[in-house]
Automatic annotation (TrEMBL):
Transmembrane segments: none annotated. It holds the Pfam family Pro_CA. GO terms for molecular function: carbonate dehydratase activity; zinc ion binding. It is an enzyme of class 4 (lyase). It comes from Fictibacillus enclensis. PANTHER family: CARBON DISULFIDE HYDROLASE, CARBONIC ANHYDRASE. This is carbonic anhydrase. InterPro entries: Carbonic_anhydrase, Carbonic_anhydrase_sf.
Length: 191
């Protein structure tokens, strides 16, 4: 049985048994926060537990590396929608150690693209259309620098209203431990 078949089979039971009732909430984030984090599978359950959040507490946006690559791309639009339409009052960019985007190099990525059957003509077409594949397919060297870059893009965005706090953190995907990159208020950590 394929994975999608298993998903559909499970879903029928999930709905029939009304398991969804355990997850009922509204579309508005209870803690008024929008989080940008990585799509890494280790963070799916670990991150909310490590920060003490439950279903419905935050809007969570996930992409490769928790990166904002363009100030007018879909990630920034999602952050702004969370603020203006859904009541978020804080933004938190949470990168993580041991990220797949760390050290990602365009040349090895493009080699894999070709191995999967994408023709050189397709790549040439994209380049002729103005797509800088080398830049687009390159990761970062330090997660802290990447988080700081994304935080700066949000803080300096012309559509970000005054009073929205923007924070940057890094999570350890093994322990859930957090380190700060940039926080917009003083915090006290009890030991």
């Amino acid at each position: 049985m394929s994975t999608i078949s298993k998903i559909m089979e499970h879903n029928q039971t999930f709905v029939k048994d009304e398991v969804y009732r355990d997850f009922e909430t509204t579309k508005f984030p209870d803690k008024k926060m929008v989080i940008l984090t990585c799509m890494d599978t280790r963070l799916t359950e670990l991150l909310p537990k490590a920060i003490g959040f439950c279903n419905g507490d935050a809007k969570i946006i996930k992409n490769a590396g928790a990166l904002i690559s363009h100030p007018f791309g879909s990630v920034m639009r999602s952050i702004l929608v969370a603020i203006y339409e859904l009541g978020a009052e804080e933004v938190c960019v949470i990168g993580h150690k041991d990220c797949g985007m760390s050290g990602l190099r365009h040349d090895s990525f493009l080699d894999k693209v070709k191995e999967k059957g994408i023709d050189q003509n397709q790549l040439d077409f994209l380049r002729s259309a103005g797509i800088d594949l080398e830049k687009w397919l390159t990761g970062f060297d330090r997660v802290e620098d990447s988080v700081a870059h994304s935080v700066a893009l949000v803080r300096n965005h012309p559509l970000l209203p005054e009073g929205i706090k923007v924070h940057g953190l890094v999570i350890d995907p093994h322990t859930g431990g957090l380190t700060t990159v940039e926080i917009q208020e003083s915090i006290t950590v009890q030991h």
